[in-house]
Amino acid sequence: MIRLSIFLMIMKNRNLSPIARVLVCTLACCVVANAQVNKTSLQAVVDSAVKTALAKFADKKLAESQLAMTLIDLRDPQHPVNASFRGNEPIYPASVVKLFYLAAAHRWLEDKKILDTPELQRALKDMIVDSSNDATQYVVDVLTQTTGGFELPPKEMAEWQEKRNAVNRYFSSLGYTNINVNQKTFCEDAYGREQASRGPNGENRNKLTTDATARLMMEIVTGRAVTPARSQQMMQLLQRDPTKKTSDADSQDIGFSGSTLPAGAKFWAKAGWTTVARHDATYIELPTGEKFVFVIFTTEHGADHEIIPSIAYTVIEGMKNMK
Q1: Pick from 175, 289, 270: nearest CA to 220
Q2: What DSSP character marks residue 205?
Q3: Is the pLDDT reported for residue 21 higher than 60?
Q4: Where are the alpha helices (DSSP H) in the chain?
Q5: Whether the predicted model's global pTM rises above the 0.85 cut
Q6: Long-range CB contacts (< 8 A, 24+ apart) of 125-134?
Q7: Residue 175 binned pLDDT confidence (cut-offs 50, 70, 90)
């Protein structure tokens, strides 16, 4: 793709003949037009998935305000194309936030801010592969040098919170916006300083957007998260098996988007679910050559096992048919 800077450099070349200038201008216009067509087509896939889901699950009272999704076409990884629906809406991410803690841990390790110990590696694996909340709590402790416990006086609590915001500061420095990643995940509830950190009305709870989540997944997939080697280590933990035999309805292999993949497809994912939230962040490679990141967040339907696979199916079919 000819970028604007290259185009301007070419056009400033006084040795170009008038005919050559016309040809260069025409080519640049075609490139821009083709990119716009691709983006429009990708947005059509997202729009179709939303429309289809709202109609199919109308009896379950699925509403637009309960959906958010982002789709990134990676067939040309150097020039990704993205489309979204409510992609910048901050939503409680459940266990999808663990993807951000994984990337932060690898940044800290690369910078030698923390020690690479067998216990940390065990926790990172269990946090992503099994979605362990206990492992996540340990990882957050290591990243932020904070621990839970009894309530602290205001001044000490403010100092504690400043440390706990370390992961937020890291992603902010990378240009991530509209997210909050400073809370542990729990099977039941938070107590003491962990509960105090959330705020009286939960205003400081974790929040992610599907746009931010899709961006991080894309950066991991394309080897841009920390380093190519560390991105590959993350990919190894995120790899799922859509052919896995299990009775676990919440399996990250087949309980979300993986259940609808065609034979021969490969995917990497981090899912999250609570009583009210059900999310999936995936990178999919289809046997027909399509490669894309797909992130879907649903709220108020945490126990529903049909909505995400249905939306994923519509997206997959749309990607296969997109020119």
Answers
A1: 270
A2: S
A3: no
A4: 4-11, 18-56, 98-110, 118-129, 133-144, 154-164, 166-173, 193-198, 210-221, 228-238, 307-321
A5: yes
A6: 125/237, 127/98, 127/101, 127/102, 128/98, 128/99, 128/102, 128/234, 128/237, 128/238, 128/270, 129/237, 131/95, 131/98, 131/252, 131/270, 131/271, 131/272, 133/95, 133/184, 133/185, 133/186, 133/187
A7: very high
Closest Cα to residue 95, out of 208, 198, 195? 208
Domains and CATH numbers, the chain: 4-321 (3.40.710.10)
Q: 290 and 279 in contact (C-beta within 8 Å)?
A: no
28 vs 165: which has the higher pLDDT: 165
Tell me what the mean pLDDT of segment 214-227 comes to.
Answer: 98
Residue 165 predicted with pLDDT over 50: yes
Burial of 104 (0-12, 13-18, 19+ CB in 10 A): buried
Token pair, residue 277, equals 């939230």
Whole-angstrom distance, CA of residue 138 vs CA of residue 121: 11
CB 225 within 8 A of CB 231: yes
pLDDT at 22: 44
**What's the angle, vertex CA 180, arms to CA 175 and CA 184, rounded to 5?**
135
Q: What is the pLDDT of residue 17?
A: 58
